[in-house]
Amino acid sequence: MDDKTVVVRDLVKDFPGVRAIDHLSFDVSPGEIFGIVGPDGAGKTTTMRILAGVLPPDSGTATVARCDVVADPEGVKNLISYMPQRFGLYEDLTVDENIRFYSDLFGVRRKDREARAAELLKACAMSEFRTRLAGKLSGGMKQKLGLVCALIHTPRVLLLDEPTNGVDPVSRREFWAMLYALVGQGVTVVNSTAYLDEAERCHRVALLHQGRLLFCDTPARLKSRLQGAVVSIVSSEPRRVRDELTAADGVSSAVLVGDAVHLFVDDAERRIPDLSARLRAGQIPFDEIVRATPSIEDLFVEAVRKDSTRVAA
After folding, report:
1. Domains and CATH numbers, the chain
2. Contact 299/269 with Cβ under 8 angstroms?
3. How far apart, in Å, are the Cα atoms of 187 and each of 33, 104, 181, 304?
4. pLDDT given at position 225
């Protein structure tokens, strides 16, 4: 495991009445964007706080950049940058003043700070906003400024806890462009998110549900794990489609995806004619019904369904 930047083994963390992390294990390789993906309550934030050395686990081990975060939580803080969900920007300070504050906090020399700040602000298209108060920035720009402050000292590992939550699509795209650029500079990124489409942007993904690891692999290999097939039905009344077909023969579950419904079926070619006939008999309008390429979201929904069934049993 010497070549791994992050090594997590059998982590457990309990809070009153709930097990937030349930024997979690995974590795992160150098120069990788590793996604920790799951809904609220999956254990993402707890995992990130343990890796950052700000929350001790009840049992298990975790090393980041070869530093044991359980035995030496202070030591890891010189090797990482941790950007929590509510990053501590000072809204009554300007963009430049916030950067200067974090530079001083991390012990960055003035000469190095100026060059690094200029580079990062240019990368996130914020060079012209250096004198603007942080409180006057949009949500997406605040997140990008938080990333600039977190990166001002060039950490080896970047821990991001749902950094694009509530950020507009354009800012999300710019944010990810910055992450790819950082990986090109040798930074390892661990990114937690509830946006399953963002899992497609990661090199590898850990899918969590109620503190348990369901799968950990590349997006392509994860999608190949999906048993059966996905049928997509586009309709002006997708909720009626879902309600009508959820209990149809061969359908294990149904999920709304915009103006479409994704059905998980045992055999797409066999089921599509039956599903079409059922919609017509119920006079439910639809524009198309086709076999679809599965997404990470499709895999996750089906995996959670199976996991919930297993736990209930």
Report:
1. 6-222 (3.40.50.300), 227-293 (3.30.70.980)
2. no
3. 9, 21, 9, 32
4. 80
Please state, in angstroms and rounded to a whole number, the distance separating the CA atoms of residues 78 and 114: 20
Q: Among candidates 151, 179, 154, which has minimal Cα distance to 164?
A: 179
Burial pattern 276-312, b for ≥16 Cβ within 10 A else e, equals eebbeeeebebeebeebebbbbbbbbbbbeeeeeeee
- Nearest-10 Cα torsion for 43, 14, 17, 34: 0
Sequence-distant (≥ 6) Cβ neighbours of residue 126 within 8 angstroms = 95, 141, 144, 145, 148
Identify whether the C-beta of residue 134 lies closer than 8 Å to the C-beta of residue 95. Answer: yes
Which pTM does this prediction carry? 0.83
Nearest-Å Rg of the Cα atoms of the chain is: 22
**DSSP secondary-structure letter at 134?**
G
| Single-letter code of the amino acid located at 136 | K
Burial (CB count <10 Å: 0-12, 13-18, 19+), residue 71: exposed
Return the SS3 of 169. Answer: helix
**Residue 25: which of 211, 303, 193 has the closest Cα?**
211
Spell out where 117-211 has E strands: 157-161, 188-193, 204-209
pLDDT tens, residue by residue, 247-289: 999 998 888 888 999 999 999 999 999 999 999 999 999 999 9
